[in-house]
UniProtKB/TrEMBL annotation:
NCBIfam families associated with the record: agmatinase
Organism: Pontibacillus salicampi
Family from the record: Belongs to the arginase family. Agmatinase subfamily.
Protein name (database record): Agmatinase
Entry-linked InterPro entries: Agmatinase-rel, Ureohydrolase, Ureohydrolase_dom_sf, Ureohydrolase_Mn_BS
Keywords: Hydrolase, Metal-binding
PANTHER family: ARGINASE/AGMATINASE, GUANIDINO ACID HYDROLASE, MITOCHONDRIAL
PROSITE patterns tied to this protein: ARGINASE_1 (PS01053), ARGINASE_2 (PS51409)
Enzyme Commission no: 3.5.3.11
GO molecular function, one term: agmatinase activity
Length: 290
């Protein structure tokens, strides 16, 4: 699938009609083949698009309007149901195309394993990349019940790819003892429970670097985002996550791509999870794209 092909489905509010003239390619990764608890995140991208229709195009936080950034919603990558290995290859190839054209890739998941092939494409295209990971879960396992392709493994794979010293995790409050021991001894940077304050401390040391950012919606407390596959009590508020997004927007980071994953709409009849996710996407578009 080419990212610039015509797409006839639902699109994020104010999506442009021309991919080639757009700064950002917004795309969905409807994959939940390896989840260990509740499936359904493959339906996240389209529900985020639907929720975006209720958004104002103007952000009072950033004093910017969506007409000030050009983005093209390319729809969902047509991933083969139940085939994680082939899906990973397709995502890597797709993001590689986006990067080769000089576009900013902004992905919507889907389970968190989708970030692994994105980072493989990023690593081929950019030098000196730092990886910022905002999540409830460490995702540092080498395998889950014997399966190395799991939504609990992407951050460990990324540590192996770019070096743990270039990986920064925020908001972590769940994982195996071995995962936290790895974080303590490997040289990666893990900040447990909180996001905003440790992020503010880290941003100056990352100034000027190429940075890829992934946000798992379950970093939010289930009170704010019940629609996710592995909800974890004790999380941050929507307000704090917005503040973190804005802190990055006002920093000197060179953000080269991002994704937001693990929205599973079936578990939230109120739709507050996808409504929040759509607002986060709006703020990322307005704040992180040069």
């Amino acid at each position: 699938m080419r990212f610039d092909e015509a797409y006839s489905g639902k699109v994020f509010i104010m999506s442009r009609e021309d991919a080639q003239e757009s700064q950002v390619i917004l795309y969905g990764m409807p994959m939940d083949w390896t989840v260990s608890f509740r499936p359904g995140s493959r339906f996240g991208p389209n529900r985020i698009r639907e929720a975006s229709l209720g958004l104002e195009e103007y952000s009072p936080y950033l004093d910017k309007h969506l007409e000030e950034v050009t983005y093209f919603d390319a729809g969902d990558i047509p991933l083969p149901f139940g085939n994680p290995a082939r899906s990973i290859d397709m995502i890597e190839e797709y993001v590689g195309q986006v990067l080769e054209k000089g576009k900013f890739p902004l992905g919507m998941g889907g389970e968190h394993l989708v970030t692994w092939p994105i980072m493989k494409a990023i690593h081929r295209h950019y030098n000196d990349v730092a990886f910022l990971h905002i999540d409830a879960h460490a995702d540092l396992r080498e395998e889950y019940e014997g399966e190395p392709l799991s939504h609990s493994t992407p951050v460990r794979k990324i540590c192996d790819l770019i070096g743990p010293e270039n990986v920064y995790s925020f908001g972590i409050r769940s994982g195996m003892r071995e995962e936290f021991q790895y974080a303590d001894t490997s040289g990666m940077h893990m900040f447990k429970y909180e996001v905003l304050e440790p992020l503010r401390k880290v941003l100056p040391e990352l100034a000027g670097r190429n940075v890829y950012i992934t946000i798992d919606i379950d970093v939010l407390d289930p009170a704010y985002a019940p629609g996710t596959g592995t909800a974890e009590a004790g999380g941050i508020s929507s307000k704090e996550l917005l503040a973190a997004i804005h802190a990055i927007a006002h920093s000197d980071l060179h953000v080269i791509g991002a994704d937001l994953v693990e929205v599973a709409p079936a578990y939230d009849p109120t739709e507050q999870t996808q409504i929040a996710a759509s607002k986060f996407i709006r703020e990322i578009l307005l704040g992180w794209v040069d």
